[in-house]
Each structure stands twice: as C-alpha cells, then as structure tokens.
Design goal:
By secondary structure, the chain is mainly alpha-helical. The chain is built from nine helices and no strands.
C-alpha cells in the first residue's frame, strides 16, 4: 500500500507520534476529504493539526467526527461559542486550547486559565438547579485546571 499524501508531510515525521498522527490524518481525510486540501495549502494549520493528533487520541477523534473541528483549529484565537450538547462545546474548546498550547502560543498559566474559563462556562450554561450554589475550590478555584481535570 502506498503512503498517503498526509503521511508524507514533514510535520508527521517530526511529530511526537508519527504513527498515531498518520492513522488520525487518514481517518480525518476519509471523513472530510476537503480537509486534506485545506491542510495541504495551509502549513500553520497542518502543523497544528499534526501536533494535536499526535498528542491526543481524544482530540484526533474529535477532528475525525465533528465537521466544525477543523474550523476551530483554523481560527484558534476565536473561542468556540457555547453549543448543545455541552459535551460538544467542551470538546471543541479543549481542541482550540490544545491547538494553541501545542503550537507554543499559550504559556502554562494561560492554558490553566483557559481551561478554568471553560469550566466556568460549562457550569454557567448547565445551570445548577435552583437553590444550589457551586463553589470552586482547589485547582478550579485557583484557576489551575489541566487537561486531566474533571470538567
């Protein structure tokens, strides 16, 4: 079997996990054929996608299943507007934050703040039942959430 165009990109070979990146790019290309052309033409976006899929199977799956995901990576400076279901909003926002993080565009403190902002937004949009108050303590209260935090 011949190598696909995506697996021959230099960003794939230089990624944290070339095998994982190759498989993910194949899946994304099959799900959204126009995405391959976008990535071919846009080196910065290609690098961001390769970095994300090499680092995270979860985010690779988001890119291969959500048609809005590639647009999120294309414009990572634009926060994702809240959407239903909230799990979709969470996944797309984490994709956006990770894209900025893995591209070196956010400092560690900014990543924690962005994840904390997402958690705040999720709580706000989920709307706790009347009479319930949410008190953020620990990492959330200190705005030090990380990708493994339960949000």
């Amino acid at each position: 079997m011949a190598a696909s165009r995506q697996t021959m990109w230099p960003e794939v070979a230089a990624s944290a996990d070339p095998a994982r990146a190759s498989v993910a790019l194949e899946r994304i290309g099959k799900a959204f054929p126009s995405c391959t052309e976008q990535l071919q033409d846009n080196g910065a976006m290609r690098l961001a996608v390769v970095n994300v899929v090499a680092a995270s199977p979860f985010l690779a799956r988001v890119l291969a299943t959500d048609p809005a995901a590639i647009d999120v990576v294309a414009a990572p400076g634009d926060p994702v507007e809240p959407t239903e279901p909230l799990t979709r909003w969470k996944a797309l926002e984490i994709l956006r934050i990770a894209s900025l993080d893995l591209s070196g565009l956010l400092r560690l403190e900014e990543v924690g703040a962005a994840l904390s902002d997402l958690a705040d937004g999720l709580v706000r949009h989920a709307g706790p039942p009347a009479g319930i108050v949410v008190v953020a303590m620990g990492k959330m209260g200190a705005r030090e959430l990380n990708y493994g935090s339960d949000i």
